[in-house]
Amino acid sequence: MSDPRAQQPAQSALRLNLRILSVIIFNFASFLTIGLPLAVLPGYVHDVMGFSAFWAGLVISLQYFATLLSRPHAGRYADRWGPKKVVVLGLCGCFLSGLCYLLAALFSSMPLVSLILLCAGRLILGVGQSLAGTGASLWGVGVVGSLHIGRVISWNGVMSYGAMAIGAPLGVVIYQYGGLLLLALIILAIALLAIVSALPRPAVAGNKGKLLPFRAVLGKIWGYGVILALGSVGFGVIATFITLFYQFKGWDGGAYALALFSGAFVLTRLLFPNAINRHGGMIVAVICFGVETVGLLMVGGAFTPWMAKLGALLTGTGFSLVFPAIGVVAVKQVPPQNQGSALATYTAFMDLSLGLTGPLAGLVISFAGVPQVYLLSAALVTAALLLTIRLKRRTQLPAAAE
């Protein structure tokens, strides 16, 4: 017979994960409304509506810029109102974005009106996602306690990237069967179901302490944000340019490399849920940056397709725990009543990094070629590793002095 004492930690961990998932699932719903139209809208704008590739790209990019600009506000509202209200408000934004897509489909005979509606939907979706994502993280922390904040952030990432991975191909299939109209109706149904499911769930109270101004929060966590921004470059260049890299090399299978990256990302978070609590965020981040750097160097120097695939897998493995590892340390730099604002501001550094990586890496490619993008990215991730070591030593000095 098995020892009950050996089973208890596993049961406790399962219960803990289920409590986290009971609220993080709402972030999955918000990211599903992002993933479903992601692979459809560029082609719809360019091929069906007849607009240029610039407008096709802009329709997608508007969501990211809206998310970036609204994240700090989302954090402050979550601190002030409580995370449940912010999540529901964010899901309402996802619903309104689906409504804009529906109207755009109905006004397809008027391309300019349809384009304006699509742009409005993307902007609303960006704000909705920042509210739902930030609120869900804080709701999860409120449910299980700040001791498990690393686990909450990790599960939040699994839900986010899992929804994107499922949503993009599923959206293409839905579009093939019923066009933008059916896709919009399904997005509306997902958002509405999430709202109805969230409303009866018990809320956790917002903190009543004095809120720090945004400048003060930024001053406490900007160093961690810079590290996150540098470390996120690897994710940006794999997600955006790996298929182009394979074309440059004359190889097939670039999509499989991207799948390996995503699979390694999710699997690493599932296999090591307690790594941050056991070893500390900064130590985990150092290891992750090292693995990510090796992966990027392997991609940049690849002379066979499998070498590039292995590099993509290592990059996904390394990047997987970067966000929660650094984030756990970052949010502890502010009082509990300001953790929502800190988490949102911290996340905005990754939004900014991913927003700038595409165009800047494109410039590098035009002058130096695709492989150099991965070598340069490895150098930036190495800089993140060195900054992490330096920051870790600086934070240890006051404790040693005491």
Please explain how this structure is put together.
The chain is an all-alpha fold and 402 residues long. It has helices spanning 4-38, 41-48, 53-81, 83-106, 111-144, 149-198, 214-231, 233-249, 254-271, 275-279, 281-300, 305-320, 322-331, 339-368, 370-401. The chain has two domains: 20-199, MFS general substrate transporter like domains (Growth Hormone, Chain: A, Up-down Bundle), CATH 1.20.1250; 212-402, MFS general substrate transporter like domains (Growth Hormone, Chain: A, Up-down Bundle). It contains 15 helices and no strands. The N and C termini lie far apart (49 Å). GO terms for molecular function: transmembrane transporter activity. It is a multi-pass membrane protein. Residues 19-396 form the Major facilitator superfamily (MFS) profile domain. Keywords: Cell inner membrane, Cell membrane, Membrane, Transmembrane, Transmembrane helix, Transport.
Q: Which overall shape is indicated by the principal axes computed on the Cα atoms?
A: globular
In the CATH hierarchy, the architecture of the largest domain is Up-down Bundle
The proportion of strand residues reads under 5%
Helix content: over 70%
What does the main sheet amount to?
Answer: none
